[in-house]
From TrEMBL:
Record carries keyword Hydrolase: no
Keyword terms: Bacterial flagellum, Cell projection, Cilium, Flagellum
Cellular component terms per the entry's GO annotation: bacterial-type flagellum
Family per record: Belongs to the bacterial flagellin family.
Protein name: Flagellin
Length: 236
């Protein structure tokens, strides 16, 4: 679990920027065209030791005797108690094997039986200590797990809120781009049908004006032609 959490913390990136390894407390994103139109994204170290408050996977706690000990996440007790338990177990098993061998050979086993009883009592006592210590450690570890979950949840909530804000900004910018495009279209583009109608109207008016001008120019010539066609009077 620790390796996977550290892998996620070390490999999560945005635009080649590490997000969850503690190298940055925040990143600033430009969300508008003008200066100052930025958004800060708060970041935290999401690696194992950071969220569980451990050092190299070990949590420093105070035991029942008031001594500070290191609890290794995933173990049922301190390494010292676990070692005592394993040693007592090995000693008891060795004594029990010696007793069984002596009985098989028909030897006097009274001393060995006392030794086995003593080893068994010591083993059971260490086992009880380990069990009690394991329960305490389990409580401590579960509390740390709850705190780690809260830490991760807070970071997720912050990133989720930032994501929503960025999505809102994206939608706003898209709407602004559409509105600007529409405004530019109304300014620069033309209505083809309306412009063709205006062109046809202007063309007809031009043709009518030319025809009227031609008609006006032809009327004097017509009068002169009529006058020239009249018979001329003889001079006296």
């Amino acid at each position: 679990m620790r390796q996977e959490i550290d892998r996620i913390g070390n490999s999560s990136q945005f635009n080649t920027i590490n997000l969850l390894d503690g190298s940055r407390n925040k990143i600033t994103l430009q969300v508008g065209a003008n200066a100052g139109q930025t958004m800060d994204v708060e970041l935290s170290d999401m690696r194992f030791d950071a969220i569980f408050k451990t050092t190299n996977g070990k949590l420093s706690v105070t035991d029942a005797n008031g001594q500070t000990v290191d609890v290794e996440m995933g173990l049922c007790g301190s390494q010292e108690t676990i070692k005592k338990y394993n040693d007592a177990k090995d000693a008891y098993n060795a004594a029990a094997n010696s007793l069984a061998l002596a009985k098989a050979k028909g030897q006097n086993t009274s001393a060995l039986e006392q030794e086995v009883a003593a080893k068994k009592a010591a083993f059971e006592k260490v086992g009880q200590d380990l069990n009690r210590e394991g329960q305490n450690y389990a409580t401590i570890v579960m509390n740390q797990v709850d705190k780690a979950i809260s830490t991760v949840s807070l970071q997720r909530a912050g990133l989720g809120a930032t994501q929503n804000a960025l999505q809102h900004t994206i939608n706003y910018l898209e709407n602004s781009a559409i509105n600007l495009s529409d405004a530019q279209s109304r300014i620069e583009d033309c209505d083809i049908a309306e412009e063709m109608m205006n062109f046809t109207k202007a063309n007809l008016m031009s043709q009518v004006a030319a025809a009227m001008l031609a008609q006006a120019n032809s009327e004097p010539n017509t009068v002169l032609t009529l006058l020239n066609s009249l018979p001329k009077a003889n001079a006296f």
